[in-house]
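ingest -> fold -> write
write: protein_1
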Amino acid sequence: MCVKNMMSMKSRWTNEENRTFESALALFEEESPERWFKIAAMIPTKSVYDVIDQYTQLVSDVSDIEAGLVPIPAYLSFNLSPNRSSPSHRKKGLPWTESEHRRFLLGLEKHGKGDWKNISRNFVVSKTPTQVASHAQKYYMRQLNGDKDKRRPSIHDISIHLTGDSQCFHDYNNQGDLMMLFDSGYSHGYPYTDSLYI
């Protein structure tokens, strides 16, 4: 009965107390001899027992989440923020640089079409897999459309062709100049290339 009364008297933690508690957990190492006393001292409204109980509950919650026992919350499908209600407020993406496109082509050669995650992770680290997939879609559409002379120049005009052991890039924007690449080092476990016009 005594334990039950103590549990029912347990006070709720405010958001501020939780933030302080989590910061204190990061501040004091697990092996610290008086860790719980130091954490409790940072939260004047809580005792050492409250702090230990909160930690035990946190560990239990994390275990349940990692085990998949906690259902994913059903978020609202529409945006409640008045600032972002119209599509015109969307942040526009930054255009791809020529260097990013060339690394995309190398990643495409290494990992193949569809492996956007690895291309993003290993070659175009400045872009997300979704951005890489979108860029690939535009690149393939540009390659399929003929009549290159009548169109505005685009980064998607640059394509890769393998000739023996060397990789060559064709840049149709520069009147057919051929750009050859040669290995000059390694980046992310893959050859990093510099360009040379011939």
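write: protein_2
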Amino acid sequence: MPRSLAWFNQRLEHTIFPTIAALFPEIVSGPSVLRAHSVAILKYNASHPRTDVHVDDGVLAMTLALSPRANYSGGGTFFEHMGADNLVEMEQGQCTFRPGSVRHGGNKVTAGERYILGAFLLISDRVEHVRRLNNQGREARNQGDLTQARRLFKWALKLNPKCATCLKNWAESIYGGAMGDSDGSVPPKLAEAAIDKLKRALDLLPQDSDAWYSLGVLLSDQGRKDEAVAAYTRSVTINADDHELCYNLAVLLGDKGDTAQEVLMLRKAIAAKPDFGCAWANLGVALASGGDMDAAEEPFRNAVSFEPTARNWVNLARLHAAKGQSALANDAMGKAKSL
């Protein structure tokens, strides 16, 4: 490790930092002011899913490919604003640099092993007031101090009205605290305030799948189902690998009577998370309700395998009964009653 650290520090000083300073002259006054404040070597293989789309905790960030491209299949980096199919792939020794606020994720490795070095970068002659206020606001929100969280996000936005992340976090600090209401819903006045923040964030970043998802959650909570379907659908077109997103959209489509699209979204949810018991259960119900009892059996069996609740066992029992399989129906109902 000492030799690796010495090599990395030398590459930072003589290659990486000068390159970054040349690429981002509007914020980096020169190579000497750059600091690598958080560095990690990451390993990916077929056991890992695609990483969620996220931003990095640094004004700038870098990814250095450590593995030869021939050592693995899949992989690469997905940048949300570039489209789901436009992956950035790197050969060993190649490096990408980006602002920390760029939304991205790691594409799934399907075979072999991929090693990368990731680093968050800071600048010694620049105080990042907005990032600090946003981080303090998130911490206050996580500690349950929602009033302080909203105050910090408001201060951050006074400094930078175009901070979409601040707007999203402010919205979450509004509706997140309201979810504890007696009926579990958000009071309309608070919901409208949060919706306004999310729409402002989407005006700044129209390809932000998380913001569209959060907007869908709020609109659905307020009974605005058609608008919620539109928001969820927009999110799915950007990021179809979010199992909760696909599931939520499927539920609303089912409520609207669009069984074909409901089934499609449930299958997408299951593809993203194969052990998603709720999605398997709903898929079974949708298929059985459409009269396809044979196709419904596998989903119901998977539902009790991944989520053995009384309700799922009852669904399987009813399916067996409808198919004239009395012994299997009685066995499944017995398991339901034992829970």
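write: annotation protein_2
The chain is about 55% helix and 15% strand.
The radius of gyration is 24 Å.
pipeline exit 0
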